[in-house]
Amino acid sequence: xxxxxxxxxxxxxxxxxxxxxxxxxxxxxxxxxxxxxxxxxxxxxxxxxxxxxxxxxxxxxxxxxxxxxxxxxxxxxxxxxxxxxxxxxxxxxxxxxxxxxxxxxxxxxxxxxxxxxxxxxxxxxxxxxxxxxxxxxxxxxxxxxxxxxxxxxxxxxxxxxxxxxxxxxxxxxxxxxxxxxxxxxxxxxxxxxxxxxxxxxxxxxxxxxxxxxxxxxxxxxxxxxxxxxxxxxxxxxxxxxxxxxxxxxxxxxxxxxxxxxxxxxxxxxxxxxxxxxxxxxxxxxxxxxxxxxxxxxxxxxxxxxxx
Length: 307
Description:
Mean pLDDT: 87
CATH superfamily of the largest domain: Butyryl-CoA Dehydrogenase, subunit A, domain 2
Strand content: 15-25%
CATH class of the largest domain: Mainly Beta
Helix content: 25-40%
Distance between the termini: 28 Å
Number of strands: 10
Shape: globular
Number of domains: 3
Order of helices and strands: EEHHHHHHHEEEEEEEEHHH
Low-confidence stretches: 289-307
Structural class: alpha+beta
CATH architecture of the largest domain: Beta Barrel
């Protein structure tokens, strides 16, 4: 089925029955694993870090679902992963530990890394043993990513890394970072001279400082690199191709449904509060018409999908 949007045709597809069939097993697992978890914890969802939960998912083959079987993945299609992501996020499952590695780090390594990097990292990601964070933003380079100043300089045995990253999600809990760094030129060269490297965050010279927000949480960190020595094989892809690669990585990051589904627990709690307020006879705030008929037991509905 196709619809027209401007001059573009968008193909709409029905999720295959074989992938839809995964829902029952996933829901049963979620009910057993987090059935008694309070809503305020479930509302954190993809910001909820629980390494044990991620490893339990991995044991069922649900981390690295679309990755090739030769690297420990399940070798399934993207519709299967969509079903898994939809169920996990709508239920408020604490998926943060493996999320970045599964969503973008492993696919990036699969696409641009060499065979040694694939064999080293992807199986451990699929087993829930290796967690990754993203090294893009810097204090002076957020939206303007091409102005990064963190530099990796060649040495006789690899690279010497200096600089830092900020707003790095769960860096304090991660084993590795894939970072966009400058390997030649200056920030004035913009997209030229950028490369990506895999950083073992346990290496000497790496200092991670969690950033505590107003709610008392510390999802983000600032990471400093002070003469961090990286091996030659830390380079991902070709030197100087960092801009091409980081855009591909951002496509992995921004193309999923999580920015919608990760809010579903909050939406459900708001709807429940509206109903309780109405039953008590107090005035209630306006409910968008598409959601007015939703209930926590209606799966799926027109305006939202319930856990």
